[in-house]
């Protein structure tokens, strides 16, 4: 080795204690300077690589879609709590978990659907309503006219025709009010969709005898005559689950809180094969929540106000976790200066939307002023009230609450088996993180 590149070391003794002096060549000193500078930036700012690590863990098959089969949501909860503990966050009481329960219908065993003799693939070709009860049989298919494409027309048509316990087929119908409910004289309803069938579990608190199935329209190109259906439901009256709550104590105003929330649960599994990874919804928001927690837990980043981090379960089944917390707060809700809910923040090429920002004009103006100066995001779009995520139970109790989601066509999968972490964009991750950090530093 070239002697000029060696790092030499010698001991210089004094009467008090031995001292080690490291003598570094200029070039090495330069390298070390940039190394520590870069390390400092990683420690003190957003870290999209850490967020990606969290996202990959949350969307892995080991967590079974973070739902209600195979303890998926519990496994995800332990991961989130482990990250809080690893970063030294405090908890209210003795642990991070806030336990509660809710009712949910599940389908833990194999689901079989055939059109005539052609087998369909769960999640890819079809999804079933979460309100379905166990069914096993072969049924004739009856095709409803294409013009019957909404709730009122469907209701009228069903009342005026006889179906003899057959299964009716509706093409690309908007049946939001009827979907998943019991309909007399009909065994089941098949809704054909042009897109990948997407699943939801928000109607899983009830069970109905009429089964509903969404199937990709392409599977009906030859108009099959029969459908073979076999699945078993398991209704859980009290699914045991938990919110995960942590905080970083503020150095000036510890009794006042800035709150970040995100739901860590997703749809879980439909049958024993199809699992829904939930990368954008809401592995993205949970990963950003964990990155924010990591950031503020570092000594140099301790905020003036306390910052709480709330990861909720049960959002997909009906905002259960946030409702439970809002009714059973671990500190007074009146101490919250601002609550920001992060749900589906994986894109951002078209900026962000802020739900409730039309209510809080001062906050919207502050966010836009910061963004105009720093250029973090393409735009900050205003939106009014909407009870569509975990901010809602807090807003209904008078807490200043907003819900932020990103906009962009770079990741469009929603509630499908394809909402995974592969090539996940996180387009506006850095800009949104910095904007949120500014809000914590300069709260209204």
Model description:
With 444 residues, the chain is α/β, with parallel strands linked by helices. It folds into three domains: 33 residues, no CATH class; 263 residues, Zn peptidases (Aminopeptidase, 3-Layer(aba) Sandwich), CATH 3.40.630; 122 residues, Glucose Oxidase, domain 1, CATH 3.50.30.30. A hairpin with a 3-residue loop joins β14 and β15. α2 crosses α5. It is elongated and about 70 Å long. The N and C termini lie far apart (59 Å). 43% of the residues are buried. The N terminus is likely disordered.
Sequence-ordered SSE layout with sheet pairings:
Layout: E1 8-12, E2 19-23, H1 26-44, H2 48-58, H3 72-86, E3 97-106, E4 112-115, E5 118-119, E6 126-128, E7 135-143, H4 151-159, E8 167-171, E9 188-193, E10 211-216, E11 226-231, E12 234-248, E13 253-263, E14 268-270, E15 274-276, H5 279-297, E16 305-312, H6 320-327, E17 336-342, E18 352-355, H7 361-374, E19 380-383, H8 392-395, E20 401-406, H9 429-441
Parallel strand pairs: 7-8, 8-9, 9-10, 13-16, 13-17, 17-20, 18-19
Antiparallel strand pairs: 1-2, 3-12, 4-5, 4-11, 6-10, 7-11, 12-16, 14-15, 18-20
Helix pairs in contact: 2-5
């Amino acid at each position: 080795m070239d002697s000029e590149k060696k790092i030499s070391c010698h001991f210089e003794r004094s009467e008090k204690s031995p001292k080690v002096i490291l003598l570094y060549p200029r070039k090495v000193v330069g390298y070390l300077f940039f190394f520590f500078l870069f390390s400092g930036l990683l420690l003190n700012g957003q870290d999209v690589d850490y967020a990606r690590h969290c996202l990959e863990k949350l969307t892995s098959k080991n967590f079974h879609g973070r739902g209600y089969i195979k303890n998926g949501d519990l496994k995800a909860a332990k991961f989130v709590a482990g990250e809080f503990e690893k970063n030294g966050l405090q908890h209210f009481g003795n642990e991070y978990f806030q336990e509660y329960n809710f009712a949910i219908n599940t389908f833990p065993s194999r689901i079989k659907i055939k059109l005539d003799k052609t087998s369909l693939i769960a999640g890819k070709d079809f999804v079933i309503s979460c309100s379905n009860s166990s069914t096993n049989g072969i049924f004739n298919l009856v095709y409803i006219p294409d013009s019957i494409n909404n709730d009122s027309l469907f209701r009228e048509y069903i009342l005026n025709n006889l179906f003899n316990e057959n299964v009716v087929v509706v093409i690309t119908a908007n049946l939001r009010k009827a979907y998943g409910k019991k309909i007399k004289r009909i065994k089941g309803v098949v809704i054909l969709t042009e897109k990948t069938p997407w699943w939801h579990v928000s109607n899983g608190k009830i069970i109905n005898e009429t089964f509903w199935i969404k199937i990709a329209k392409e599977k009906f190109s030859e108009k099959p005559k029969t459908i073979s259906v076999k699945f078993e439901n398991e209704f859980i009256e009290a699914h045991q689950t938990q919110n995960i709550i942590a905080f970083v104590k503020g150095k000036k105003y510890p009794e006042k809180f800035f709150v970040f929330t995100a739901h860590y649960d997703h749809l879980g599994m439909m049958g024993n094969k199809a699992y829904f990874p939930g990368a954008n919804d809401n592995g993205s928001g949970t990963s950003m929540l964990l990155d924010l927690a990591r950031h503020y837990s570092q000594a140099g980043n301790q905020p003036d106000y306390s910052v709480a981090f709330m990861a909720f379960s049960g959002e997909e089944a009906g905002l259960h976790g946030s409702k439970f917390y809002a009714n059973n707060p671990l500190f007074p809700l009146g101490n919250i200066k601002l609550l920001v809910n992060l749900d589906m923040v994986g894109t951002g090429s078209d900026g962000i939307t802020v739900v409730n920002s039309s209510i809080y004009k001062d906050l919207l103006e502050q966010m836009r002023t910061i963004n105009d100066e720093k250029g973090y995001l393409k735009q900050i779009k205003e939106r009014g009230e909407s009870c569509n995520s975990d901010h809602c139970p807090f807003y209904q109790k008078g807490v200043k609450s907003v819900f932020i989601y990103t906009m962009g066509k770079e990741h469009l999968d929603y509630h499908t088996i394809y909402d995974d972490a592969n090539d996940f964009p996180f387009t506006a991750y850095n800009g949104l993180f910095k904007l949120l950090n500014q809000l914590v530093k300069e709260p209204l």
